[in-house]
Amino acid sequence: MFYINNTMVSIDFYGGVDEIGGNKILLTDTKSSIFLDFGMSFSRANQFFSEFLQPRKANGILDFIEFGLLPCIKGIYREDYLRHCGLPYEEEPSVEGVLISHAHMDHSAYIHHLREDIPIYVTQESYLILKALEETSRTPFTELIHLKKTFHFIPKKRNEGYKRLQGKPAQIKRDVKVIKPYKNFEIGNFKIKSVSVDHSLPGACGYIIESDDDTIIYTGDLRFHGRRPKTTKKFVKKAKRPIQQL
């Protein structure tokens, strides 16, 4: 859900419209670009895949692009997948960060495909959940905290030829930034505050985002009937203040 006072910030929806979850929302002003969540659309993925029929990791990112599961945007995807598919790799990322509202897969699963130098902003609880999912999951697309280089080969030390890069040399830690509720931080031209909300998963938050001309309120998922309704009510009060000042 969004509240926005002006139109200087453009909003592009690549998921989360007329569906539950799948949020991938790009905010862009004249100086900066950020994503709000980067999740899987279960409804769309289920049109093509099932428990026993999954995207081909050997095909890199192409299955996801071909079926419209991921947007075709330059400068956001990991180098190993792009080069394997023969797609161009930009030297610099085209967005300054991704704000994750919570660790449910319909809001965070496709972090796996992002390049490692795009900062991922999460609460402490969301970080721990994503880390546990990465360490315990048996599915092939759960590199949420670390990125393991695929399709990379290095020369053999003793014999001629090449071998696949594996183990610790292939693992790169993503630029994950743990944020604290109600603490201001900045991404490019955006001034941001995360505010805790009640949801079925710990660590859920909404965001109050301000640019030079606009104020955007992003709720993610929230509820008023759970164990901590006061946190959601506090978010509503925090969100109401900048709107009243416009």
Defining traits:
Metallo-beta-lactamase, Chain A; 21% helix; globular; five-stranded antiparallel sheet; 15 strands; alpha+beta; 246 residues
What does this structure look like?
- By secondary structure, this protein is of the alpha+beta class.
- The chain contains 6 helices and 15 strands.
- Strands 2-3-4-5-6-11 form a 6-stranded mixed beta sheet. Strands 1-15-14-13-12 form a 5-stranded antiparallel beta sheet, covered by helices on one side. A two-stranded antiparallel ribbon has the order 7-10.
- The longest helix is centred in the last third of the chain and has 16 residues, at 229-244.
Task: Write a brief caption for the model.
With about 250 residues, this protein is α+β, with helices and mostly antiparallel strands.
* Percent range for β-strand residues: 25-35%
Q: How many separate structural domains?
A: 1
Main pleated-sheet profile: 6 strands, mixed
Characterize the overall form: globular
Distance between the termini: 19 Å
Gyration radius over CA? 19 Å
Sheet/helix structural class: alpha+beta
Give me the strand/helix succession. EEEEHHHEHEHEEEEEEEEEH
Extended strand count: 15
The CATH class label is Alpha Beta
CATH superfamily: Ribonuclease Z/Hydroxyacylglutathione hydrolase-like
Domain Metallo-beta-lactamase: 88-223
InterPro entries: Metallo-B-lactamas, RibonucZ/Hydroxyglut_hydro
Protein name: Metallo-beta-lactamase domain-containing protein
Organism: Methanothermobacter tenebrarum
